[in-house]
Amino acid sequence: MVVMFSEAPSATSSTAPRHALVTAAASRTVLLVTAAAGCAVAFVVAYLLFVRTASGQQVENGVVHSAQSGKSTVDWAAPLQHADLVVALGGVAVLVLAIALARRRFALGVTALVLLITPMLAAQLLKLYVLDRPSMNDGLAVASHNSFPSGHVSAATAVVLALGVVLPARFRTWVLAVGSLGVAWVAAATVALGWHRLSDTVGGSLLVAAVVCAGAAVVSARRPDATGVPLVPVLVTLLAPSALVLGGYAVLATATSGAAQFVAAMVLAAASSVAVVLLVSGPIRRVNFDPARAGSRLSR
């Protein structure tokens, strides 16, 4: 799902459309705030719908049971089992700083590192100390400890967005588009291996997207943008994330067999991760995250 964002037509243009949703415009900061709010609301919706209801737990526990029973071949997901997440994240942190130093923008590198680390810490704190998964006693031998949101997917999403921030803005959309495929693989692999549920993967992506968009909104508010953004993209960023969660639930709940649920969960995890990354790529694509260049509104 790729959302195109274009500037609102000038009020003095004789060809400007008359429809209110097209002619009315919001600032880019408002767009970023609604994107952050939309992802945050969808995160809460996913938790309440999938984790706090018996029906949500039942449909997801069936997927976990199928994955852990070893009925499906998931050799393509095996590399994730042997990956050292701490080493990988350390390497990414070094890479981010190296790119920033090569561009002579150390402050930008620090900003990217903050946006890399903050959502991952938030995911772990929420999962371990704030959110819980009540036992619904559905009869399936599935671990009942809380796994929402996924730390693996949170990390993968944060890595992609951090690289998008530290690299030149002209590459940002391409970095996020290609990187979203890597996030999709991680999301699908965690489901295939029985480590996480669909909601865990979606929640991980949404949490990171909300944090990054909120950070971008703070930066944007300090550098006013005279150009406007049409209200349609603003509404899309607000409503699309929750629609994504509700759609995933509807598809998973209507699967007719355990095998169908298993496949659907993997596909939905991958597709949802791509959708979340691409959805926020529009709002952040022109944001200058470099605090050392406060006078420049656009990133280069």
Question: What are the SSEs and their pairings?
Answer:
Blueprint: H1 20-23, E1 25-26, H2 28-51, H3 54-68, H4 78-81, H5 85-102, H6 106-130, H7 151-166, H8 169-192, H9 198-222, E2 229-230, H10 231-253, H11 258-284
Antiparallel strand pairs: 1-2
Helix pairs in contact: 2-9, 2-10, 2-11, 3-11, 5-6, 5-7, 6-7, 6-9, 7-8, 7-9, 8-11, 9-11, 10-11
Q: Over all CA atoms, what is the radius of gyration?
A: 20 Å
**Total beta-strand segments:** 2
Please work out how many helical segments DSSP would assign. Answer: 11
How much of the sequence is in beta strands?
under 5%
Compute the average pLDDT. Answer: 85
Alpha carbon gap, first and last residue: 26 Å
* Order of neighbouring strands in the sheet with most strands: 1-2
Task: Give me the strand/helix succession.
Answer: HEHHHHHHHHEHH
Spans of at least 5 consecutive residues with low confidence = 1-23
Determine the fraction of residues in helical runs and give it as a percent range: 55-70%
Task: Name the shape in a single word.
Answer: globular
Largest β sheet strand count, sense and barrel closure: 2 strands, antiparallel
Derived from helix and strand composition plus strand pairing, the structural class reads mainly alpha
How would you portray this structure in words?
This protein has 300 residues and is mainly alpha-helical. It has helices at residues 20-23, 28-51, 54-68, 78-81, 85-102, 106-130, 151-166, 169-192, 198-222, 231-253, 258-284, and strands at residues 25-26, 229-230. Helix 5 (85-102) runs antiparallel to helix 6 and helix 7 runs antiparallel to helix 8 (169-192). It starts with 19 loop residues before the first helix and ends in a 16-residue tail after the last helix.
